[in-house]
Design brief:
Distance between the termini: 48 Å
CATH topology: Jelly Rolls
Shape: globular
Strand content: over 45%
Radius of gyration: 18 Å
Order of helices and strands: EEEHEEEEEEEEEEEEEEEEEEEEEEEH
Oligomer: single chain
Strand order of the largest sheet: 1-22-19-24-17-14-13
Number of strands: 26
CATH superfamily: Jelly Rolls
Largest sheet: 7 strands, antiparallel
Helix content: under 10%
Amino acid sequence: MAVRELDRILNARTTRDGAGVTVHRVFGVGTENLTDPFLLLDEVNSCIPEEYSAGFPLHPHRGIDIVTYMLSGFLRQVDSLGKACMIGPGCLQWLTAGSGVIHEEMPLESAVLRGFQIWINLPRAGKMVDPLCREAAPEEIPVVPILGGKVRVLAGRFGGASGPVIGVQGKPGLLDVELDPGAVFLTDLPPERTGIVHIFEGGPAEIGSVRTEELPESSAFLLGTGDSARLRAGPRGARFLLLSGTPLREPIAWKGPVVMNEMSEVDLAYKEYGTGTFVKAL
């Protein structure tokens, strides 16, 4: 078993999105060829309502999967599919935008609003599928106990358990891993798949043989070649996301919330949005 070492640091930055929500952009535009098929990873973590209360008013998406995973607080989502739902602590929403969906995401004021949003690129052949929104409550997300920790299987497979959302294009893997101090996490990660680690709680840890105390906090770490991933928690334990997926290796044309293969397709999407013909399926 060849353990993957740290290959590259994806430096995070703080920015504003939506109507002025403060987000921690772990990676996004400019790294898409490195993180393929993953496009973006945002984290919101705030106890100040002014940093998030304006939310994300109505906006379109096309050509991607949008995964929202909440740790604390509530996010109300309404979309052009006629779906209205509340995404609360421990909940997962998987929105396949496909041919086009319009939605809004509005946070409710809470002691702490914390969660992640991940954009996953859809292949050329699947970009114009009918949109579909699926949710999983906390009790529907498998929790696999491991020595010195536990793993929530958000997507893909781990320890004999499968994520709660079925029929996902590309079969990405998303794991939320919690480790006690000094505990080690080891898992197979086929060499043909992209591997990304984002440590969001805990102190120093090891990725392969590299200690993260020497690395920027809250950034993402791209794993190199090999067929397994190994992480060791530091004295304060660790909690991290492990993303894995097979690269599409297709052209990426990206503008705002629309991701296609050619800029002409992106331009058409915005033209349709302006003329009220964006949504293809209800």
